[in-house]
Design brief:
Uracil-DNA Glycosylase, subunit E; five-stranded mixed β-sheet; two-stranded antiparallel ribbon; binds uracil
């Protein structure tokens, strides 16, 4: 795909409004062969400024949560459904999600993670293709097909949800603890049969 260089989108003009509002394209970060691939919604102001996903307050929550389960930010891959900041932090529109989907699918295909973890409602519904009650389904592993390949997706609440609603902290922490089990290739494979 000519817009991508490896896992990075290097040029894209598919969404007129996002092209006008972005400072830059915010690509995923982390190892190209990570066991865990976290997928958020879209870059916010901090991400747009720094060119990296989850570097604002949500990123701090994610980093802290990862540390609590013995992981470092650098151990996992982190990306978004949409790679350009929507104006005024609005949700990405259906057409924008669709325009960017090819890049997300290519990233999932190339990283080939043990587990994809969706952070919040938008990525959960985008990858599962249905309505998702995120708090109720957090920690569940769902089998989906992406680009013809079977993928395991774990639903997780958005890190920012723990800031608005401290009751979500436990849900977030226990979901990350379950996800961490998939960082060991062997236990990840063993679990394949469990779900
Ligand atoms: N929220 C997201 O969904 N993605 C980011 O990159 C930052 C905040």
């Amino acid at each position: 795909m000519e817009q991508m260089d490896g896992l990075d989108v290097v040029a894209c003009e598919r969404c007129e409004e996002l092209c006008a509002s972005r400072s830059r394209i915010v690509n995923g970060v982390g190892p190209a062969d990570a066991d865990l691939l976290f997928v958020g919604e879209a870059p916010g102001a901090n991400e747009d400024e720094q060119g990296e996903p989850f570097v604002g307050r949500s990123g701090d929550v994610l980093d802290d949560g990862l540390r609590e389960v013995g992981l470092d930010r650098g151990d996992v891959r982190i990306t978004n459904c949409v790679r350009c900041r929507p104006p005024d932090n609005r949700d990405p529109r259906k057409g924008e999600l669709a325009n960017c989907r090819e890049y997300l699918e290519a990233e999932i295909d190339r990283v080939d993670p043990e587990l994809v973890i969706t952070l919040g409602k938008v990525p959960a519904e985008h990858l599962l293709g249905r309505d998702v009650a995120v708090t109720g389904e957090a920690g569940d592993v769902v089998d989906v097909t992406v680009e013809g390949e079977p993928r395991r997706v774990m639903v997780c609440v958005h890190p920012a949800a723990t800031l608005y609603d401290p009751g979500q902290k436990e849900t977030f922490a226990s979901t990350l603890a379950k996800a961490a089990d998939f960082t060991d290739g062997e236990s990840g494979q063993r679990r394949l049969g469990d779900y």
